[in-house]
Amino acid sequence: MTGSVASIWRYPVSSMGGERLEQAPVGPSGIEGDRIWGLLDAQTGRIASPGRERHFIEVPRGHARFAGAGVALSVDGESWAGPDDPVTLEALAAVFGFRPLLKPFDPVPGEGFRPRYEHAPLHIVTTAAMRSLGRDHPESVIDERRFRPSLVVDWADEAEAMPEQGWIGREIRVGDVVLTGREPCGRCGFITLEQEGLPLDVELLRTIVKRYGRNFGIYCDVVVPGEIRVGDFVEIS
């Protein structure tokens, strides 16, 4: 059973829009630069949770990219600045409806600002699963950006609507990188939110709950680090 890497994504700031990559180094904690900063409401100190609080639903409309030692932010995906640039923060505030505060996550648990929730190192969604969802919910715009995967794997349709569910507990080879499937990825309201080029779709989550038990895609652990590239073969054993 083989497929290939269709796309690679990195999300330097949790909950903000990510960046699509052609290649990426993968370490034990996942893609380098992935989810290394958090976004908070500067007034309340609450960390953004767009899928759970209406207050934060515009956050995915902002853009973030990895900038070596830190992150860069943008409103339009074209003009970029550092996370403390006042002009950019004001522009993002106008989009978000609150003044944002950006902070790096502390890499040492218990010693500083930590993520709202912890992620597995990598998250995979297959094209086969997205096609199945499109058949189950034809009124929707099925776009990988809704699901925020690390890797989209091009995979042929199988009898199972979501082939990656069968990869849990198995070895997944992506080029020279070796992963193991850990668990299904449970979904929240984030997948329904309006993003650039994607409309609000409140029925999408209902379909996933009804058809897939709220799960869509899988989380994976890294067994052998390395570098992944778009087009790399994906093999399950």
UniProtKB/TrEMBL annotation:
Q: Which InterPro entries match?
A: MoCF_Sase_C (IPR005302), MOCOS_middle (IPR005303), Pyrv_Knase-like_insert_dom_sf (IPR011037)
- Residue span, MOSC domain: 18-237
- Which PROSITE patterns does the UniProt record give? MOSC
Q: Which SUPFAM superfamilies match?
A: PK beta-barrel domain-like
The protein depicted here goes by the name MOSC domain-containing protein
